[in-house]
Amino acid sequence: MKQLLAIIEMGGYPNFIPLYRSLGFEVHVENSVRKARSWLKKTTPDVIVAEYNFQSQFRDRTSNLETLMAVLEKYGSSKVIAFYDTQTEHKLALLQERFPLHDAIPFPVSEEKLTDALERI
Fold first, then answer.
1. CA 89, CA 54: separation in Å to the nearest integer?
2. Which pTM was predicted?
3. Burial status of residue 64 (CB atoms within 10 A of its CB: 0-12, 13-18, 19 or more)
4. Which of 50, 65, 55, 52 has its CA nearest to residue 99?
5. Is the four-CA dihedral 96, 9, 86, 4 of positive or negative sign?
6. Is there a contact between 65 and 53 (Cβ–Cβ < 8 Å)?
7. CB atoms within 10 A of CB 58
8. Which domain of life is it from (predicted)?
9. Distance from C-alpha of 90 to C-alpha of 88, rounded to nearest angstrom
10. Closest C-alpha among 96, 103, 64, 106 to residue 81
11. CB neighbour class for 45 (10 Å; exposed up to 12, middle 13-18, buried from 19)
């Protein structure tokens, strides 16, 4: 069975776990990139779905997703789908120059766009 890691830090969108399961994924959920990092040292999921949260106060990075992508360089080759706010799209584009994403879906996230992204994996 394919594995999917859902990192839900901020939320504010529908619970997509039933969708993930209906598409044949075994789902693991974490509520922070920090906790996900520990889990990723032991497991390499096929897919990771996470939020892109731009944070200008970070000293050496711009977001939670940058930390996650750096970990994936070491521990795995998972496909990453990011949910993002259109106001930070330009910052996400900079991140994607360094770390390619499978897909990026703007808020509000629609079940149709997410299904399409998952089916293309």
1. 9
2. 0.92
3. buried
4. 65
5. positive
6. yes
7. 12
8. Bacteria
9. 5
10. 103
11. buried
pLDDT digit string, tens, across residues 43-82? 999 999 999 987 655 555 567 888 888 888 876 689 999 9
Mutual orientation of helices 64-75 and 33-40 as an angle, nearest 10°? 0
Q: Say which residues have a Cβ less than 8 Å from residue 37's Cβ, sequence separation at least 6.
A: 67, 68, 71
- Domains defined along the chain, listed by start: 2-119 (3.40.50.2300)
AA letter at 89 = E
Euclidean distance between the first and final Cα of the chain, in Å?
14
Q: Return the pLDDT at 55.
A: 67
